[in-house]
Amino acid sequence: MDAPSSRHRGAASDSTVAVLRRSTAAGDSADSPTICALPLPQQIADHLGHQIMNGDCPPGSRLKEEKFAEHYQVSRGPVREAFRILERRGFVEIVPRHGARVRVFDPADLAALFSVRGVLLGLAARQAIEQAAPDVVERLAAQVARLRRSAEAMDITPLEHAKIAMEAQEAVICCSGNRPLIRMMEELKGRALWRMAWHETPLDFTSRARRQQSARLWGDMLRAIKNSDADGAERIGRLLLEASRDHMLAAMAAQRRHAVAEPEDPAPSRRRPRRSATAANETNVTAEAD
Length: 290
Known about the structure:
single chain; mainly alpha; Arc Repressor Mutant, subunit A; Four Helix Bundle (Hemerythrin (Met), subunit A); three-stranded antiparallel sheet; 13 helices
């Protein structure tokens, strides 16, 4: 990062005010994230990441340091560090001699993340049994009951079903007692690909049959844990994430086929409609769930 000059120090000392002023400008919507007194690069990364999620910075577009330094009224150093944070989160890629650009979404990357998460969930289930965690059965049973009601009544959205499934995952993960594993799962939760996969329309849990499959697999997980079947629980953990991976990739392929077949809009909107704050919050938890 650039060595702070007196002018830079002045900009940084007023950083929270500057970024707050920019984030509440007339052009930004009410569902933009609240920016609090975090380190300046993290503030910028959080706000810019939200803009990328909303489609204001399309995939492949170049992010120029000087442009965002002027936008946030700061020096280029904090902007450069914000780009590095966004690179770690998976939102952008930094190309030598070309700078930062918004990452182009690759379904193969999403598939790989699902596979990794499936391995970790299976290991967490095994270790929850080995640890004989006292409350894992009770916590998991509550979520399985909710998933079954969702599959039967179809009275909640796909995002809400996915949120319940994520809570079931967290019950198993927390009861594993494996702190490095818990941290790894938390890091995967922050990956941009999880969020991007659900940005436009739900890609999973849209049908009764799919929700029934989800509820059945989680019921199998609960039974394996009750019976202290570590091998079975580990296998089911992988199956849960593999099922979600396969359904989401199939839905994405169908969307691409539809986009190719659909005639191009002669006057496309330059800005996508912004979602409500509730929908934005739900998106953050959805794509990592099954």
